[in-house]
Amino acid sequence: MTTEWRSVRLFPIPSVIYLIHNDVQFATLTYMDTSTYQIMGNLKIVTTGILFRLFLQKKLSNLQWMAIVLLAVGTTTSQIKGCGQTSCDSPFSAPIHGYLLGILSACLSALAGVYTEFFMKKNNDSLYWQNVLLYTFGALFNMGQLVLDDFRGGFEKGPWWQRLLNGYDITTWMVVLNLGSTGLLVSWLMKYADNIVKIAVYSTSMAMLLTMVLSVYLFNFKPTLQLFLGIIICMMSLHMYFAPPSMPVDLSSTAKATPENLKEISIDRKNES
């Protein structure tokens, strides 16, 4: 467990980025509905790929870039409501402020994820020690914002620690447990895989498929055509991303066949002459 300041000083940076990102998310929701917000959130798939290439110097093939764009298209397709439903509003009806904040949110999410992967792989520290440092700084920065809000409000509702757990019930604690477990799983992906695996396999395609199955079973949800098409597109993009570069065209067999064919043609022409 490294305690040198050279290593520890990297952890406040993603904590600040996540803090700003969370505030931008709430600000975005004041300008657009949840469906449009989800569609705008798919931009983080593409921005993560771009920052993944720029900051971590990980080269992606043209096929993998196509798979990333196809994944964003698939998730967007699954979230668009059909005109047979109760709401058929255009996803482009929000004010320009909402779209700018949505783009900023996608960029901040990608930046925080890529930077977190960078310092988690920088040394061989325990993953749990890295999580302790990351979330300790995150809690301190959020605590500072709560104190600042109290000063701005003149402590009308009392100090923040007296109302910190107001409204908590068993459902709230289950959500906290779920998100905490999700954070641990994502940290494992950051440490031993990468952000592309996170957005492609974990948080997008598999989660979308599992959510559909559970919704059908628990809430009698009727899957739409857009949802089925989106899942199929996402599965195709996964296959494209993890496929070997030589899979689309078997160049080896083509290269072997060409000289033999040319040889046969030349021999036939000699015999005719």
Automatic annotation (TrEMBL):
It comes from the Eukaryota. The keyword Ion transport does not apply. Its main location: membrane. InterPro entries: EmrE-like, Nuc_sug_transpt. Pfam families: Nuc_sug_transp (PF04142). The chain crosses the membrane at residues 39-56, 63-80, 92-115, 127-148, 168-190, 199-219, 225-243. GO terms for cellular component: Golgi membrane. Keywords: Membrane, Transmembrane, Transmembrane helix. GO terms for molecular function: pyrimidine nucleotide-sugar transmembrane transporter activity. Belongs to the nucleotide-sugar transporter family. CMP-Sialate:CMP antiporter (TC 2.A.7.12) subfamily. This is CMP-sialic acid transporter 1. It comes from Trapa incisa.
